[in-house]
Amino acid sequence: MFYYVKGTVAHVAPFLAVIDCGGVGYACRTTNTTLSRLEKGAPATLYTHLNVREDAMELYGFYSENELNCFRMLIGVSGVGPKAALSILSATTPEGLAMSIITGDEKSLTVAQGIGKKIAQRIILELKDKLAKGQLAASGETYGGTGVTVIPENKSSEAAAALAVLGYSQNEIAAALKGLDMEQLKLEEIVKHALKKMVK
C-alpha cells in the first residue's frame, strides 16, 4: 500500500519515528540503525511495510531498501514477528545479517534482545533454504540431464546468496562479483567488495 513515506522527522522515540508528510504524521516502527540516521526537524524518506492484523494496522519504516528487504525476510520465518525482526536489525546491519545466515553464525543473532538460540537456528535454517531455492531458480543449471537443479558449494555461490538477502537482482550480483579473486579473498571480503561496487 505504501512504498515509502517522505517528509520531515517530527518525533523520535525507541523503535519509533514519526514522519510529517503534508501535515499528517505517519508513525513508523523502526530499528536503532534507522533512528541513528534521523534527526528531528530534518527531511527523511523511509521505505515502508504495512503490517495488518485483526486488531491493528502498523507501519514499519526503514532508512534503506536493504533493511526493509531483510525485515520482510525475517518476519517470513515461522515464529519471528515484527518486534523480533526489529530487535535483530537493531543489533546488526543487513550485511551482517546476510553473513550470519550464509555462514550459520547463530551467536551473532542471539546478541539481539529477545532472540534465543532456537529462534536464531530457525532463522538461519529457513532463510538459507529460501536463498538456496532462489539461487536454484536463477542459475538454471541441471545435474546429469535429469532436470534437477543444483548449487555449487563454493564461495561464489555463497557470496551471491548473501547479496540476494539484501534484495539485489541476479544481474546486479553477477556484475558485482565479476573480476573478484574468489580464490584468495575470504567470503566476507568478497561480499564487502561486491557491495562497494554496487553502491558506486
UniProtKB/TrEMBL annotation:
Keyword DNA damage: yes
UniProt xrefs under Pfam families: HHH_5, RuvA_C, RuvA_N
Domain of life: Bacteria
Chain residue ranges for the region called Domain III: 149-200
One of the record's GO cellular component terms: Holliday junction resolvase complex
Domain Helix-hairpin-helix DNA-binding motif class residue range list: 72-91, 107-126
SMART domains attached to this UniProt entry: HhH1
Keywords: Cytoplasm, DNA damage, DNA recombination, DNA repair, DNA-binding
Functional description taken from the UniProt entry: The RuvA-RuvB-RuvC complex processes Holliday junction (HJ) DNA during genetic recombination and DNA repair, while the RuvA-RuvB complex plays an important role in the rescue of blocked DNA replication forks via replication fork reversal (RFR). RuvA specifically binds to HJ cruciform DNA, conferring on it an open structure. The RuvB hexamer acts as an ATP-dependent pump, pulling dsDNA into and through the RuvAB complex. HJ branch migration allows RuvC to scan DNA until it finds its consensus sequence, where it cleaves and resolves the cruciform DNA.
Family: Belongs to the RuvA family.
Protein name, UniProt field: Holliday junction branch migration complex subunit RuvA
Originating gene: ruvA
